[in-house]
Specification:
The chain is an alpha/beta fold and 252 residues long. It folds into two domains: 7-100, no CATH class; 108-213, Lambda Exonuclease, Chain A. It has helices at residues 6-14, 16-24, 33-49, 59-69, 78-100, 151-156, 158-171, 196-214, 239-242; strands spanning 4-5, 108-117, 120-131, 137-143, 175-182, 187-192. Strands 1, 2, 3, 4, 5 and 6 form a six-stranded mixed β-sheet that branches. Helix 1 (6-14) crosses helix 2 (16-24), helix 3 packs parallel to helix 5 (78-100) and helix 4 (59-69) packs antiparallel against helix 5. Bound molecules: iron/sulfur cluster (SF4).
Length: 252
């Protein structure tokens, strides 16, 4: 079986059919502005920390890089794109101020991992890994979400749990802190590392998803993001494309 990433596991959890259409059948998703915006800001945060000596690039360099790598896909109009481009500049200027004042070289930036969980390969990229004064590690994931993360968001975030699993398998050093970094407000939202029981539960979940995929179990499951980019393949939405109404449930 091919390696699984967090995004694939999360997509399978929200709708197995969507997972199949995208990752097995290879259908292409539509470009969306928030993916372009998020990727651009991520690349700039990576550029800021990816230096060999503990002195970050100047703000001018970061903003120049931002202009060079800006991704335009998915914006509805030139005005909308210009508005977000300006907003991104503000975010990065604040990011530069906050992190230049207290700059420390990370242990790793945009680190690729590929680890084994009982025969299933888990792959991914971790935005940033820092070494804490205690000697333990801190895992940081950048997010361009609108809303600030709650305590529950942090405690239930599967991505952070899987990244802790991967980091501890790669380095044999304990992860002591997990962070979702809210880029829009430059806020560090952190919690303690997951317990052994939580890591074991996440491993079981990876194995369960892998097993379901190998059993070709791909039911359509409606969720808050419906319709996805492939409604013409979905039993819940196909009638809008073929003109055939779905069978009505008989009322009692
Ligand atoms: S539209 Fe259908 S296939 Fe797409 S996510 Fe919703 S239920 Fe799944």
């Amino acid at each position: 079986m091919k390696p699984l990433s967090y995004s694939q596991i999360a997509l399978y959890q929200s709708c197995p059919l969507h997972y199949k259409l995208q990752y097995i059948d290879g259908l292409k998703t539509k470009g969306k502005w928030y993916f372009s915006f998020g990727s651009t800001i991520h690349l700039c945060a990576e550029y800021f920390f990816k230096v060999r000596t503990p002195s970050p690039p100047s703000l001018e360099k970061v903003l120049k890089y931002y202009g060079e790598i800006w991704l335009s896909a998915g914006y509805q109009s030139a005005e909308e794109e210009a508005r977000y481009k300006d907003y991104g500049r503000q975010i990065l200027t604040k990011f530069w101020e906050v992190h230049s004042a207290d700059f420390r070289l990370p242990v790793a930036i945009e680190r690729m991992f590929y680890v084994d969980i009982d025969g299933i390969k888990l792959k991914g990229f971790i935005d940033r890994i820092d070494k804490l004064d205690s000697g333990g590690l801190s895992v940081v994931d950048y997010k361009t979400n609108k809303k600030l993360f709650t305590k529950a968001d942090l405690e239930n975030d599967l991505q952070l749990t899987l990244y802790q699993l991967a980091v501890e398998k790669m380095w044999f050093l304990p992860v002591e802190k997990l962070t979702l970094y809210h880029l829009r407000s430059n806020t560090t939202c952190s919690c303690a590392a997951r317990s052994e029981e939580q890591l074991e539960a996440a491993s079981r979940l990876v194995l369960e998803v892998a097993e379901n995929i190998s059993q070709n179990s791909f039911p359509a499951t409606e969720n808050q993001y419906c319709p996805c980019d492939f409604p013409e393949y979905c039993p819940y939405y196909i009638h809008k494309y073929s003109g055939i109404a779905p069978e009505l449930q008989e009322s009692e």
